[in-house]
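Researcher: Please translate sequence to structure tokens.
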Amino acid sequence: MLAAGRADGDVSRPSEARALVERAVRELDGLDLLVNAAAEGFAPKPAEELDERDWDVAFGATAKGSFFVTQVAASHLRASKGCVVMIEDVAGYQPWPSFAAHSAAKAAQSMLTRVLARALAPEVRVCGVAPGPVAVELGQEERRAAETLLGRVGSPEDVAAAVVYLAGASFVTGTTLFVDGGRSLKSGVAPEA
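Model: Translation complete:
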């Protein structure tokens, strides 16, 4: 396993995405699972105040990075009959006015899940995981738990379990698994509420 973060490169730049994938292939002696979890721009801001930089930040690692890393990894994943898992967000499926750029970037990433599933099939499966309230800010646990049907916030382990499931689900591709405790089924719930 190779975990990479900001210090390992800007995945929104094709050359840095390529360098990261090449490093992973070298260190892991191949590639059979890619998890695209990079994201930025999750900060509340009124839609009227968003500027070009806000949009560039939100779309950079989230949509561009997911695409460029997957594009470079595709040949390695084809060779191993591998899997890509996009860490999406319920924000990509719900209109959150205070998180317009983030929601739009996550919607773009969720569409990439479907586009790349078609483009890379049948050798590579591409799936998504859309977390809801997970690892929330201190002091927000009770309020965020009330947003879910299960009455609790999720954990990083909940998201990891979904990734592990999808990595082994050989007849699943082009779909997204919501790991949100039923949050998406509750109407009118937005994180800025």
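Researcher: Any highlights?
Model: The chain has a mean pLDDT of 93.
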